[in-house]
């Protein structure tokens, strides 16, 4: 998430049969929050949500295999239906979502991470699917876990619905976070912050960002968003000494207080439609898009209110619409939807190298040590060396299309294609 988020590199205008809905009703919590949410118990040994523990797609631990082939497969499991969500890992269990369109079911699946054995599969929603683009899926949002429960978000029944599921496969609660009107579908993954589950849902007329109590599903706060279709996932980071919720869409880069939903700062003049996640290093936000404008930008975000051009550190014209940027030390890696990868200097925006890898890209790259793993839509995984000089280590293809990002934990790659869940490991 995006996920990986899976949409055309252009957006066609939509004419609704009726007038757009009114802006979503905002919610503000009054008084002290009394939450029954379980504590967050995940660690560096887990991959608990979209882009990993630190929200940056950086893995830790021993390096996994660099040859992507049948010989590297420790186990594989067939996945019913279709989904572009990335799997998550907690303890010895993997969880991922999928959808079977013929039966109109959206499900959560659990696997044994050591053997690939399916532990259980439960339908989270049945029926009332909504419109989506042919390049998207009905299960594109990556689930999240606090170490105790699993949280899913699906577009269904004219809204965005969140669910809490136990690790044994029991649905604990379900709540509509807000109404939703689909143009090309949904792909924004949920975030966990303290006792809250945070959800972004941009759409025509009734977009919102909301926080639900993880213990009960109660909406603690909900803030309306500017009108417009966008598909990105927000991120949480410490900026200027405080926690901030940063997200893109509707020609803006916005920061909210994750505890209250109040706007902290915003920057205008980017792209109407975004389908990826901003990256934050220190007080610098790196973002990219999109449609109709193409950009990769670095912004100093230690202010409040409206930020202007004086906050722009550098900006380049490059179309990186769906894959999220990868930032590592002095380099920013941008994998364009068209298969052209660029390495920028993180401080100046100067181009270190540019290389066409081949194919189209929707998944986001994962980094471990001095290695980058990134798959294209055809299911070919590229392994690159980090640094200001381009070096490709290998590439290899497995069965299925590649729309989900690789998860790397303890020297293993857990990678979901359109047909299988793979575990790759060194012998």
TrEMBL record:
Domain Pyrrolo-quinoline quinone repeat: 144-333
Leader sequence residues: none
Keyword Kinase: yes
Keyword Cytoplasm: no
UniProt-listed InterPro entries: PQQ_b-propeller_rpt (IPR018391), PQQ_rpt_dom (IPR002372), Quinoprotein_ADH-like_sf (IPR011047), WD40/YVTN_repeat-like_dom_sf (IPR015943)
Name of the protein this chain belongs to: Probable serine/threonine protein kinase
UniProt keyword annotations, A-Z: Kinase, Serine/threonine-protein kinase, Transferase
Entry superkingdom: Bacteria
Molecular function terms, GO-annotated: protein serine/threonine kinase activity
Pfam family, one: PQQ_2
Upper lineage: Bacteria, Pseudomonadati, Planctomycetota, Planctomycetia, Pirellulales
Species annotation: Blastopirellula marina DSM 3645
């Amino acid at each position: 998430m995006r996920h990986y988020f899976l949409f055309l590199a252009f957006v066609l205008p939509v004419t609704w049969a009726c007038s757009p809905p009114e802006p979503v009703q905002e919610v503000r919590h009054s008084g002290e929050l009394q939450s029954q949410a379980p504590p967050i118990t995940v660690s560096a040994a887990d991959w608990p949500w979209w882009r990993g523990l630190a929200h940056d797609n950086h893995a830790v631990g021993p390096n996994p295999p660099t040859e992507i082939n049948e010989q590297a497969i420790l186990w594989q499991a067939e996945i019913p239906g279709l989904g572009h969500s990335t799997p998550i890992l907690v303890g010895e269990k993997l969880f991922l979502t999928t959808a079977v369109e013929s039966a109109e079911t959206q499900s959560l699946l659990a696997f044994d991470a050591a053997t690939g054995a399916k532990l259980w599969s439960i339908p989270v929603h049945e029926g009332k699917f909504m419109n989506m683009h042919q390049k998207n899926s009905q299960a594109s949002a990556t689930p999240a876990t606090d170490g105790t429960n699993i949280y899913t978000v699906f577009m269904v029944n004219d809204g965005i619905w969140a669910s809490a599921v136990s690790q044994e496969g029991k649905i604990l609660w379900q709540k509509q976070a807000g109404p939703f009107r689909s143009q090309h579908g949904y792909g924004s993954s949920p975030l966990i912050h303290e006792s809250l589950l945070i959800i972004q849902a941009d759409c025509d007329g009734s977009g919102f960002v909301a926080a639900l109590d993880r213990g009960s599903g109660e909406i603690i706060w909900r803030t309306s968003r500017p009108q417009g279709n966008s598909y990105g996932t927000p991120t949480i980071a410490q900026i200027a000494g405080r926690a901030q919720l940063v997200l893109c869409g509707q020609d803006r880069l916005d920061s909210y207080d994750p505890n209250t939903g109040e706007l902290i700062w915003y920057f205008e003049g980017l792209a109407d439609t975004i389908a990826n996640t901003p990256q934050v290093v220190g007080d610098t936000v790196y973002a990219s898009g999109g449609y109709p404008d193409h950009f990769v930008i670095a912004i100093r975000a230690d202010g409040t209110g409206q930020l202007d051009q004086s906050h722009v550190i550098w900006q380049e014209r490059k179309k990186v619409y769906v894959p999220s940027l990868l930032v590592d030390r002095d380099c920013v890696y941008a994998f364009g939807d068209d298969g052209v990868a660029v390495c920028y200097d993180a401080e100046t925006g100067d181009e270190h190298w540019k290389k066409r890898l081949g194919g189209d890209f929707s998944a986001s790259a994962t980094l471990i040590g001095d290695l980058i793993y990134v798959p294209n839509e055809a299911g070919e995984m590229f392994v690159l060396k980090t640094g200001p000089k381009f070096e490709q280590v290998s590439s290899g293809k497995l069965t299925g299309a590649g729309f989900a990002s690789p998860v790397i934990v303890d020297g293993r790659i857990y990678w979901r294609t359109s047909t299988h869940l793979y575990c790759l490991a060194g012998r």
